[in-house]
């Protein structure tokens, strides 16, 4: 059954667990998430970006989740829209049946330029007003995702201009967070602590100076009743990086957010943990390996099955580590 983000995260806070929120674009990803949830009895958050809607088409995306609810009737599902660039995007998703939307007002509608605080409050409050009237939850974001090492906003391929974000934009301020939550009424707040989207987050295994879990604790101490969200929280599994490169890939050396750091965050108010890159890497690695080892095969179901299994294993490991296993 579909439930709202608020319902799920209130339960997570009561019971002290965190929820991975996996991005999905196609049937195999939905299968992987739902199979893993079934194996360990976890609720799920499936999130779709504007890019996912463009890839699959709105009806396919919507029906994938309807199909998941039908095929897996015992698993509570939050259908969340990831990174809405402007209120109109969120409104369209609400119309489409999403039970939760993210209004990302930390950036202007171009999704590149940092916005002003006043703009962020205004657009987020606007979405909350309509969404709450319809029982839909809202996630806001305060602070900009980006690297404390380089000031880069974090591009998918590791490229991008250095130093576009300054230190204060890269770490959410606890006082401002309190004001933002009060003014907007968001159900969950995404915070900036040095993580960025994509595989190229850290040039070395992160330490406290470049991954500010301490900041999570300071924000949670100031707004203990707000559900915190960590974006850019893929762990960038080194074993999948190796497999990709061993079977014809060419990814640079890079590091993600260690699972144990996320677990530390969950002890201090983090309830939703966004993960996309890890499933992309597992899927690509598994497909490269399968095709290299089975050169005679040409039935796509075989390599897609390998991809689904690899993604499922990651999902299951996160449900177990974050404590949502057994909570469905
Ligand atoms: O926010 C980033 C997520 O990983 C979604 O990525 O926009 O390529 O679908 P996407
Ligand atoms: P990753 O790129 O670390 O998987 O982050 C995904 C994310 O934050 C989606 O909103
Ligand atoms: Na989101
Ligand atoms: Zn994100």
From TrEMBL:
<keyword id="KW-0479">Metal-binding</keyword>
<feature type="binding site">
    <location>
        <begin position="274"/>
        <end position="277"/>
    </location>
    <ligand>
        <name>dihydroxyacetone phosphate</name>
    </ligand>
</feature>
<dbReference type="InterPro" id="IPR050246">
    <property type="entry name" value="Class_II_FBP_aldolase"/>
</dbReference>
<dbReference type="InterPro" id="IPR013785">
    <property type="entry name" value="Aldolase_TIM"/>
</dbReference>
<dbReference type="InterPro" id="IPR000771">
    <property type="entry name" value="FBA_II"/>
</dbReference>
<dbReference type="InterPro" id="IPR006412">
    <property type="entry name" value="Fruct_bisP_Calv"/>
</dbReference>
<feature type="active site" description="Proton donor">
    <location>
        <position position="82"/>
    </location>
</feature>
<comment type="pathway">
    <text>Carbohydrate degradation; glycolysis; D-glyceraldehyde 3-phosphate and glycerone phosphate from D-glucose: step 4/4.</text>
</comment>
<dbReference type="GO" id="GO:0008270">
    <property type="term" value="F:zinc ion binding"/>
</dbReference>
<keyword id="KW-0456">Lyase</keyword>
<feature type="binding site">
    <location>
        <position position="197"/>
    </location>
    <ligand>
        <name>Zn(2+) 1</name>
    </ligand>
</feature>
<dbReference type="GO" id="GO:0006096">
    <property type="term" value="P:glycolytic process"/>
</dbReference>
<feature type="binding site">
    <location>
        <begin position="232"/>
        <end position="234"/>
    </location>
    <ligand>
        <name>dihydroxyacetone phosphate</name>
    </ligand>
</feature>
<feature type="binding site">
    <location>
        <position position="104"/>
    </location>
    <ligand>
        <name>Zn(2+) 2</name>
    </ligand>
</feature>
<protein>
    <recommendedName>
        <fullName>Fructose-1,6-bisphosphate aldolase</fullName>
        <ecNumber>4.1.2.13</ecNumber>
    </recommendedName>
</protein>
<feature type="binding site">
    <location>
        <position position="141"/>
    </location>
    <ligand>
        <name>Zn(2+) 2</name>
    </ligand>
</feature>
<comment type="similarity">
    <text>Belongs to the class II fructose-bisphosphate aldolase family.</text>
</comment>
<comment type="function">
    <text>Catalyzes the aldol condensation of dihydroxyacetone phosphate (DHAP or glycerone-phosphate) with glyceraldehyde 3-phosphate (G3P) to form fructose 1,6-bisphosphate (FBP) in gluconeogenesis and the reverse reaction in glycolysis.</text>
</comment>
<feature type="binding site">
    <location>
        <position position="83"/>
    </location>
    <ligand>
        <name>Zn(2+) 1</name>
    </ligand>
</feature>
<dbReference type="Pfam" id="PF01116">
    <property type="entry name" value="F_bP_aldolase"/>
</dbReference>
<keyword id="KW-0324">Glycolysis</keyword>
<keyword id="KW-0862">Zinc</keyword>
<feature type="binding site">
    <location>
        <position position="198"/>
    </location>
    <ligand>
        <name>dihydroxyacetone phosphate</name>
    </ligand>
</feature>
<dbReference type="GO" id="GO:0004332">
    <property type="term" value="F:fructose-bisphosphate aldolase activity"/>
</dbReference>
<feature type="binding site">
    <location>
        <position position="231"/>
    </location>
    <ligand>
        <name>Zn(2+) 1</name>
    </ligand>
</feature>
């Amino acid at each position: 059954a579909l439930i709202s983000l608020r319902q799920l995260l209130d339960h997570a806070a009561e019971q002290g667990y965190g929820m991975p929120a996996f991005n999905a674009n196609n049937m195999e990803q939905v299968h992987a998430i739902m199979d893993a949830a079934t194996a360990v009895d976890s609720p799920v958050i499936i999130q779709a970006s504007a890019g996912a809607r463009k890839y699959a088409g709105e009806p396919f995306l919507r029906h994938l989740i309807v199909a998941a609810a039908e095929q897996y009737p015992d698993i509570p599902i939050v259908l969340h829209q990831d990174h809405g660039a402007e209120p109109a995007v969120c409104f369209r998703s609400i119309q489409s049946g999403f039970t939760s939307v993210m209004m990302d007002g930390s950036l202007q509608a171009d999704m590149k330029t940092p916005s002003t605080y006043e703009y962020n409050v205004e657009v987020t409050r606007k979405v909350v007003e309509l969404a709450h009237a319809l029982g839909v939850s809202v996630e806001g974001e305060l602070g900009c995702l980006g690297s404390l090492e380089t000031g880069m906003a974090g591009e998918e391929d590791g490229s991008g201009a250095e130093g576009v974000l300054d230190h204060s934009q890269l770490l959410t301020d606890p006082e401002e967070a309190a004001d933002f939550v009060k003014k907007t009424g968001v159900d969950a707040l995404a915070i900036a602590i040095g993580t960025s989207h994509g595989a190229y987050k850290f040039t070395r295994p992160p330490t406290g100076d470049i991954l500010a879990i301490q900041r999570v604790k300071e924000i949670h101490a100031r707004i203990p009743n707000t559900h915190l969200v960590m974006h850019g929280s893929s762990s960038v599994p080194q074993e999948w990086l190796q497999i990709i490169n061993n079977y014809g890939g060419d990814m640079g050396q890079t590091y993600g957010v260690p699972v144990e750091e996320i677990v530390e965050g969950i002890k201090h108010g983090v309830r939703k943990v966004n993960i996309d890159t890890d499933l992309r890497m597992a899927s690509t690695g598994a497909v490269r390996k399968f095709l290299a080892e089975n050169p005679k095969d040409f039935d796509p179901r075989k390599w897609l099955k390998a991809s689904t299994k690899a993604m499922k294993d990651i999902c299951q490991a996160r449900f177990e580590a974050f404590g949502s296993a057994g909570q469905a």
